[in-house]
Design goal:
Shape: globular
Keywords: Transferase
CATH class: Alpha Beta
GO molecular function: transferase activity
Strand content: 15-25%
Structural class: alpha/beta
Distance between the termini: 18 Å
CATH topology: Spore Coat Polysaccharide Biosynthesis Protein SpsA, Chain A
Low-confidence stretches: none
Number of strands: 9
Pfam family, one: Glycos_transf_2
Largest sheet: 9 strands, mixed
Radius of gyration: 19 Å
Oligomer: single chain
Protein name: Family 2 glycosyl transferase
């Protein structure tokens, strides 16, 4: 088997996703290229941690599953850092606890790392709508709202500024160079759905290692469950606002030039084309055309409002984040 050993980290926080967590782990055990190990990191929920520890202590799964408690502050970033510190693989891959990976997910990741310059590889995330179909009004350009790959990202295996955290992998040496995921950015359970911690990390990594290559390979596919409450415009608007807040933090950390580099292209090319498609569909009496065009405009304005508020808070010192060093486990 060529390529590096891969440890998979899945962060969990609620028993409400019990079946999803088990499905995520099962999808790792079904990989065509086996993982070295699966690390389940539980975010300050002792009941869930004990239940998972019992589940996998008695399991006959072919790949070792280790259940860990988040050793840092509450939130996804600290949970990922806990997994990184415990991982034994040369590469650390991350999978959301409500997603399942296709059989060749890890194989495509591992192949990319045969190039020693490659420091991170992401994949394509496909939404699985609770209702069974995409809402007519929901534009593909905003699939990032539900944690999925959105229209406008490049296709194939291509270089990118940053990978998307729910379907991503990094060399362990990347964390030696750049530190871990910043705490104070990103999700904290069911609180306001912030994000962008992987964007900030990737930009920081590229500065620490100017020769680093970061890729997306859209053959590395996962399927991400979108619950019913996230199919509504209210969540769409909340998530867009939170994204603006998060981008303000990223810009504070790495500067607006790099922090908003990809977003400028997205806002000036991808989104206007999406509005035009929606209006065309409306003229042709296709379902949801006007709604999609309106949602794009509303999403842009809401995210911009969040960015302004986040920038003001950052200047006043009302929001802080930290970049921890991560001491990775010694390889056996």
């Amino acid at each position: 088997m060529s390529g590096p050993d891969v440890s998979v980290v899945i962060c969990a926080y609620t028993e409400d996703r019990w079946e999803d967590i088990l499905a995520a782990v099962s999808s790792i055990h079904a990989q065509s290229r086996p993982a070295l190990e699966t690390l389940l990191v539980v975010d300050h929920n002792e009941t869930l941690r004990e239940r998972l520890a019992k589940e996998y202590k008695e399991s006959s799964e072919p790949v070792a599953v280790r259940v860990l408690a988040n050793a840092g502050p509450r939130g996804l970033s600290a949970g990922r850092n806990t997994g990184i510190a415990a991982a034994r693989g040369e590469v650390v891959a991350f999978l959301d606890d409500d997603a399942v990976a296709e059989r060749d997910w890890l194989r495509h990741f591992a192949e990319a790392y045969t190039d020693p310059r490659v420091m991170a590889v992401g994949g394509r995330t496909v939404p699985v709508w609770a209702s069974g179909r995409r809402p007519d009004w929901f534009p593909e350009e905003f699939d990032w709202v539900v944690g999925c790959t959105y229209r406008g990202l490049p296709r194939g295996r291509v270089r990118v500024r940053n990978v998307l955290g729910g379907n991503a992998s990094f060399r362990r040496s990347a964390f030696d160079a750049a530190g871990g995921f910043a705490t104070g950015i990103g999700r904290d359970g069911d609180k306001r759905p912030l994000g962008c911690e992987e964007t900030e990390l990737c930009i920081r990594l590229s500065r620490a290692r100017p020769d680093a290559v970061l890729l997306i390979d859209d053959r590395a596919v996962i399927h991400h469950r979108v619950p019913e409450n996230r199919e509504h415009f209210r969540y769409f608007r909340t998530r867009a606002y939170a994204e603006g807040l998060s981008k303000a933090l990223v810009a504070r950390s790495v500067g607006a030039g790099k922090g908003l580099e990809s977003e400028r292209r997205y806002a000036t090319r991808v989104l206007p084309a999406g509005v035009a498609r929606g209006l065309r569909d409306a003229v042709l009496a296709r379902p949801g055309g006007a709604g999609r065009a309106g949602a794009i405009v509303a999403g842009v304005l809401t995210a911009a409002g969040g960015y302004v508020v986040g920038s003001v808070r950052a200047r006043r010192g009302g929001t802080t984040f930290q970049v921890p060093e991560v001491e990775v486990a010694a390889r056996e």
